[in-house]
Amino acid sequence: MRVGWFTGFVLAIAFALSPTAAHAGGSITVAAAADLQFAMNDIVTAFRQAHPADRVDVIYGSSGQFYTQIRQRAPFDLYFSADIAYPQALVKAGLAASVPRRYAIGRIVLWSATLDASKLRLQDLADPRFDRIAIANPEHAPYGKRAQQALQASGVWGKVRDRLVYGENIAQTAQFVQTGNARIGIIALSLAMNPAFAARGGYALIPADLHDPLEQGYVITRRAANNPLALAFARFIESPQAKAILQRYGFSGTQPTPAHEAASR
Amino acid sequence: MTLAAADFAALWLTLKLACTVTGLLFVLGTPLAWWLARSRSRWTRPVAALVALPLVLPPTVLGFYLLLAFGPHGPVGAATQALGLGLLSFTFSGLVVASILYSMPFVIQPLRHAFEAIGNRPLEVAATLGAGPWDRFFSVALPLARRGFLSAGVLGFAHTVGEFGVVLMIGGNIPQRTRVVSVQIFDHVEALKYGQAHALAGGLLVFSFLVLLAVYTSQPRLRNF
Questions:
Q1: Residues of B near A (CB-CB distance < 8 A)?
Q2: Alpha-carbon distance B47 to B53, whole Å?
Q3: Cβ contacts (< 8 Å) between A114 and chain B: which residues?
Q4: Cα–Cα 20 to 30 A to B109, which of A134, A198, B44, B76?
């Protein structure tokens, strides 16, 4: 039986690799900006209570990278970007199955894990005792760009520039601060408000008029055009329940923009 | 598709990092490889396994532990702060330390194999001719192991140039200090600047191929890779 063990081996591997065919419900994969890390987990938990048989996988990362990946036909069904400009560009590229819709407006905060930053203002960063200041990379991270604008508007950009360290996305920026490798940083309010971070140090909200608004948008991608679960999830995002969760993590502006207004930006 | 000043800075930094790391690995790795090749101690196996670990581990494991170790509450961070050196994270020195760990097996293993391939006989002959242990090492072992040194140098250098995950986790992406070419390419792609990404990535591809080709051509019977 020489064929026997080999065939058995191949079958065993094929079986192990095959998707769970017995799975009855629908399935979606959501690409979400890193600032949604905690809020989206809660939203998915709430969504799944109404859809217990369905499968929702969420992948967190940087908005720009997801945009590139979706343009290369990455298998994401919904795309939640920290900057609505990316979903708008996907629509232009013909890769979306819905109009881009705003789901929230983000805010930035000054946060430290080792000292109480709640009384600090951006001008205080000129003090050289803040030897490392973490921000997200302004080149491509929406939160980094807003952090740079706020530092410039506060007149301290030139003074802090040599002490900046750059996270690839807002979650890595927060992680630099959390581990103490950077004494202070500018991160998303939605991350600073999660219980694990809020228990340490403190944060100060940066005035919204110091930077462009962080208008966050999502689209259903083209591959999910006929996926009922993707449409159901998009509907859920617009529900009062999901908006309440987003507000709990400091997101404002959860009233969606009309499509024509979003498209004209 | 032209390179900006920031791209040249990243290239220069990468070159500086790879040269520093390769040089330091020769200094630190040669005695260690010699010991691994010639000692009969029962510790050679655990040490050899330790040296080979970066071959197996994902860079994220090293990056994660280094980030914690370099931080103010980590053992390395506590030591460097006590010495008045500050923290190693987000510094060029930090990248050098990380790269030494990360590229170590690529230097030590070819050296060890080269030293083992010499065997006892040439060294014994040299001893009967009156050569002392240092003389035997520098006049006999080193010249005989020169191909091992070449492959160790090329591999250590190339592997450091190709480093990405560890740098991304502990580098902080600072221009002229920790923003190496691999990270710069990643950032260009993230910022949707595909033209600049192409220029750097394509240049690196051609450069790497030419370096390896030159080595293979000059050493037709190189067997240590």
A1: 67-68, 70-73, 77, 86-87, 89-90, 168, 170, 172-174, 186-187, 189-192
A2: 10
A3: 72
A4: B76
User: Which residue range(s) make up the domain with B212?
Assistant: 5-218
Q: What confidence tens digit (pLDDT) does each residue in B19-30 have? A: 999 999 999 999
Whether residue B224 is contained in a domain is answered as no
Residue B73 with chain A: CB contacts under 8 Å: 180
In a domain, B223, yes or no: no
Residue B184 reports pLDDT greater than 70: yes
Phi first, then psi: give them for residue A13, nearest 5 degrees. -65, -45
Strand residue runs (E) in chain B: none
Kindly report the CA angle at A254 between A249 and A259, in degrees rounded to 5?
145
Of A34, A210, A37, A39, nearest in space to A109 by CA: A210
Token pair for residue B197?
């990404």
Other Cβ atoms within 10 Å of B53 Cβ, number = 13
Residue A159 host element (H or E): helix A157-160
The tally of domains found in chain B comes to: 1
Return the residue in B89, B169, B185, B190 with the most chain A beta carbons within 10 A, the one to mutate for interface testing: B190
Q: Chain A: residue nearest B91 by CA? A: A165
- The predicted model scores a pTM of 0.81
Distance (Å, whole) CA B65 – CA B67: 5
pLDDT in tens, B56-115: 999 999 999 999 999 888 999 999 999 988 899 999 999 999 999 999 999 999 999 999
For residue B225, is it within any domain? no
Decide if A140 and B67 are in contact by the 8 Å CB cutoff. no
Backbone angles phi, psi at A25, to 5 degrees: -80, -175
CATH of the domain at B27: 1.10.3720.10
Spacing of C-alpha B32 from chain mean position: 15
Dump strand ranges (E) for chain A.
27-33, 55-61, 78-81, 101-106, 108-112, 133-136, 164-167, 184-188, 202-205, 214-220
Structure tokens at A221: 């991608």
> What is the maximum span of chain A, computed from C-alpha positions, in angstroms?
80
> What is the average per-residue pLDDT within A203-231?
95
Domains of chain A, CATH where assigned: 25-105+213-263 (3.40.190.10), 108-205 (3.40.190.10)
Question: Distance between CA atoms of A136 and A167, rounded to whole angstroms?
Answer: 5
Radius of gyration of chain B (CA): 20
Sheet arrangement for strand A55-61? A55-61, A27-33, A78-81, A214-220, A101-106
CA atoms within 13 A on the CB side of A50: 12
CB A182 to CB B172 under 8 A?
A: yes
